[in-house]
Amino acid sequence: MEQHEGRASRQADDGWWSGRLHELWRVAETAEDVTGLADSLYDMLLRMPGVLAVVGARWSGGLLHYLRSVTLAEPTSSLMEIERNYGESGAAAAPEGDPTVTVHEVSGVDDAMPYVQVLAAAGARSFAECAVPQGQGSWASFMVGTAGRETIDVTLRTRLKQVAEVAMVSDRRITARRADEVRQVSDAFLAEASLQMDSSLDVKSTVRRVARTAVPAIAEGCVLHLCLPEGLKPVSFAHMDAGEQQWLGKVAAEDTWLTEVLRQVLDSGQALVLKGEELRGGPFGPASSGAGRAVRAISVNPLNARGRVLGTLTFLYHRAVVAEGASQFLAGLADRAALAIDSSTLHEQRRRHVVSLQRHLLPRELPRIPGLTLSSAYEVGDVSLDVGGDFYDAVPGTQSGVTVLIGDVCGRGAEAAALTGLARHTLRTLFEDGSTPEHALKRLNQALVREGTRFVTALVAVLVPDGEGFRVRYWSAGHPAPLLRREDGTVEELVAHGDLLGVLEDIEYGSGSVRLAPGDALVMFTDGVTEARAADGTFFESRLRDEVARQGAGEAHGFAERLAEAVVEFRATGADDIAVLVAHAESTK
User: Fold this and answer.
1) What is the 3-state secondary structure (H, E, C) of 227-294?
2) Is the pTM of this model over 0.70?
């Protein structure tokens, strides 16, 4: 009778276990993370006969991340974060294959291990352990503590292995799903990051965008170093805590430990992730002081683009788990950042070359004419950085006068630059030889017709002293009409229609004359000024007269620069260059 009752009890227990195990598998199929299994798994094991405590641990090699435990005295699950590296002694229990169960005496295990302390406090003298591999190179250990080794029978070992296998399979499924989600999010983030970083061709703006894009989306802090002629220097940094910005900037610029780490990455060309004890000796990690204590890990990626090493991209993590399994994503972000920075750098270099070449197509300085202040300005407008065709010049003449000219060659690039030089130097040479504007424009038209490639607009004005002011005669070959700003701020348009140069062999020029009284200014410009467009589609031409009146109220020598700056500030679209030439009759007041 007693034997029958014992068999019935075991059968009932087996039925209870089978039902709970089936339920555990069902939960495992929908769990968002392994923590979702914890309550059911730990409760099942704790209900087994003779069990005093159940402890689970999450490891990465010898690094213990956390313990989760339940005991008969405290059946509610308790979580203890550890983040401590126990080295070889911790890694010794790591599984090499399928889950296996081993039995230990509590007294025979290092009592410095946190899980030993939990088991001992629950009264356990023996425990069965099952270690299972999990994703991203980590592993988990499930331990069941009992009052003695005799309690750890075949049934307990089998059931411990069963729940461990459920946890392992669930972890694989969750890891695969997360990897797919991370891949999708990473691809979307990298695409957006590329758009953000590529949206500016200015080097400073680009490096600032790299840091702003990464914090706090990827990490709590970010530092970007570039290899500059003076050495490896931080050029951008950001931290999610604005109060730590200054600290991070100082560390990036002055800390020798970090500099050595960056050098190691540059020399090897390989990314590096440091965490835990690996941060010892530097400004980060639990052994440091101040803001650095919150940093649990750092990652450093080299910035490589077009076969050149540009610098390093460093991320600071306050949560060590963020740095795990992210190497491919970080490498992708670093590659995009490097390409964006390199493109910006090359663009800036090309811009300097274009500006330098453009300046060689313009006069080095304007002549000094008694009673007259000449000012000029030139702004490159094309995002492709081809050399433009705008030009201007001023040639001193007889009777203390001057001939001022401005023009625009159709198109951009090397051919336009060649014709720009041809047009300006042809006119200058002819004026220096005493040619009249009609003759000079005719000779230039003949030369351009022979070239037969592009047309040119030009405006020439001859200013001759006339009492306290100047007498002005002007000729236009299809160029925008100049403006006359009177000393009282009123603005007049000097209309003079004419044919383009380089199209017809026989052309007519529009001409006119006006007197430039003291305080008046003759304002000449190219169509890059009138055709500059704001974001709402408004052309600068609609406010040109108002701006000429406003900018002309300041110092005469900066009139042209101020007007050009106003156009640049107004312009949202429009890729044409801007040239402005102003002749201001000095006031006698």
Assistant:
1) EECCEEEEEEEEECCHHHHHHHHHHHHHCHHHHHHHHHHHHHCCCEEEEHHHHCCCCCCCCCCHHHHH
2) no
